Structures are given as structure tokens and as C-alpha cells.
Amino acid sequence: MRVYGFIAEFNPFHNGHKLFIDKIKQKYHPDVLIAVMSGNFVQRGDFAVLDKWQRAKIAIENGVDLVIELPFAYAVQPAQYFASGAIKLLNALSVDKIVFGSESDLDFQALANKSLQLDGKFQQDYSQSSATNLTDFYRYNGLVVTHDPNQLLGLNYARSIVENHYDIGIETIIRKRDDYSATSIRQLFSEQKDFSDLVPSETWSAFQKERSVSWDDFFNYLKFQILSHSETELRQDYQMVEGLEYKLKKELDSSQNFTEFIERVKSKRYTMARLRRLMIYTLLNVKESEIKNVYQNPYLRVLGFDQVGQKYLNFLKQNDQTFITRVGKKEKTALELELRADSIRQLVDFSEQNFGRIPYMKGVR
């Protein structure tokens, strides 16, 4: 049985994602295709424009056999932790190969081996962001790594596989730099422009029916958290370092919206994505112990499957793998951070994200 997996956010699912899935099937002919997908919050520190259930359904309708949620504790993280968590789940799912998009045909396993050898030599230059500093360090030491996000993520996927000795092969699908962009689609949506030709009909329909969300909807909630907590209390939030709690307090009063606020907080030492993730942690009052708890107790939550995916789930269950398919008293402890994150989203779109929700099932009786 050929089991292939990939990692995605589908924010939103567009024609480029459909093309990627089709190419995997045409090139590798997998018996099962699994997607590990971010939930209601994404890696760059933002809210997914459509909720996880809508995006999982769209993925299943467009060729994915099984969608597993990437927990918040991994999904809203820098690339190395995002990749590590996703690969850990794919390994638990007994995936044979991971496939990801890349702007060029690189030997990611060789790059991973060399980058791991260089780990002890890396020193942070605090005049620039960690991501830029690390990329420059790799280049200086002969690693052909660019600032293209797909290649940087690909390197981190490969590093996680090599470092943990996972038996997962690595395959790539070459993508052009002018391929479909989820960022441009989100921009078109915010400008109320037509993008129906860039997305499958299921995505377009979801945008017409469902309420999308963004940071603009949550800025007042963020303000409340910052204003109602002292600097000492804010300092307890995950990744609140180097006096950033004072900077947040200082810039809040003179900021009219989230975009203006984050621009005022921005500095050379922190990327915009890093600060947006910090704002998510602040909004949700996330503690480091909660992140570590998920790391130590990972889980597999099913968001959707078709008949092929159902058969594979049954196969894994026979081999003692466990899955979360609904939320009850037993699951509340494992999902505590996820439930809190989703409840914040529900303040705006009022759509229940957990209790009473079951995976989307296509063609399953």
C-alpha cells in the first residue's frame, strides 16, 4: 500500500492546491493521500479565512482521502516547530512518502543532513530577524536555500525526518513562482473582488455562505487582553520576551486598528509573522506549559475522509492507533488549548467548532 501525505493550510483552498493534488496522483499513484491541515489558526499568526470544517470538506471533495488537524500548538509556530509537529503526525499515520511543493529540484535530504551538522555553529545576529539570520548562515556555509517559503519549509520537513529517524521518503512537486497565491486571493476577497476563477466551486460557494474572519474582527478583544493585564501578567504569555509587553502597552493607545498596531510594534529583530503569532498567544492567553503539554501528548483529530480514508483509518485502528472523531468529556483534556482557541473564533462567526461536530464523510454510509 502506497500511503502519501502532505502538509497544508488551505487558506483558502484554491486551484493551485487542486493542481498539486492532481499532480501527486498522476506522478506517484498513491493508494491513500493524507493531508495534515492547520485548524482555525495558521502559521503566519492569522485566522484561517474559512473554518477548519469547511476547508477539510473542500479538500476531501477535491481529491484528498483523509484530513487530520494540525494542533494549534504546532500550527501557530515558526517553520521548524510547525514542520516538526506535522511530520510527527504523518509518522504516526504510517505515511510512506511526504510530498511538498518546491520552486526548484533540490536534494532536501542532503540539505537536511548538512544543516543538522551546522547546528552547533549557528549564532544569532540580533541586528536582524532569526529567520533571515539562519538563511544567511546556511548560504554562507554552502547550503542552497532561498527565502522562498516552500523551500524553507521543505528543508524543515526533511530535517525533522532525518533527525528523528522517521522512515518517510521525500518527494517534491515543482511549482512556478507565479503559481496561484492564497495571499492574493485573500486580498481580492478583502477588496470584494471576484476570484471565482481562482478557486474550485466548493471554495467559492463557502465564501458566499459562510462568514470569513480576520484580525480586524478581533482587535478589540486583543486590546482588552493587553489593557486588563499588567506587564507582569503579560510576561507569562508564551513567547513574550525581551520587554515586548512594555512595547505592546506603549503602542496600543495610539493605534486605531490591528494593522497600525502591529506596524508600530514591528522592529528589525522580529518578523511580522513572529509578532502576529505573539498577538495570537496574547489574545488566547497561551502559556508555555500548554504548548509543551501538546508536544508531550500529541493526538490525531480527524476532520474528514472519503471511503478510501475510512478504510485506512480502520486499518490503523486495528494496529492500535487511536483517533479523535468527536469531542466528549474524555477528549476535553487533550484538546483544552484547541477548544479555547476555537471558542475565541466563535465570538465572531458563532459557528460551533467542536461539540457536536463530526468529520465530513464523503461517500460513506
TrEMBL record:
Pfam families: HIGH_NTase1. Coiled coil: none annotated. It catalyses: cytidine(34) in elongator tRNA(Met) + acetate + ATP = N(4)-acetylcytidine(34) in elongator tRNA(Met) + AMP + diphosphate. GO terms for cellular component: cytoplasm. Its EC number is 6.3.4.-. Keywords: ATP-binding, Cytoplasm, Ligase, Nucleotide-binding, RNA-binding, Transferase, tRNA processing, tRNA-binding. PANTHER family: TRNA(MET) CYTIDINE ACETATE LIGASE. This is tRNA(Met) cytidine acetate ligase. It comes from Companilactobacillus suantsaicola. The lineage of its organism: Bacteria, Bacillati, Bacillota, Bacilli, Lactobacillales.
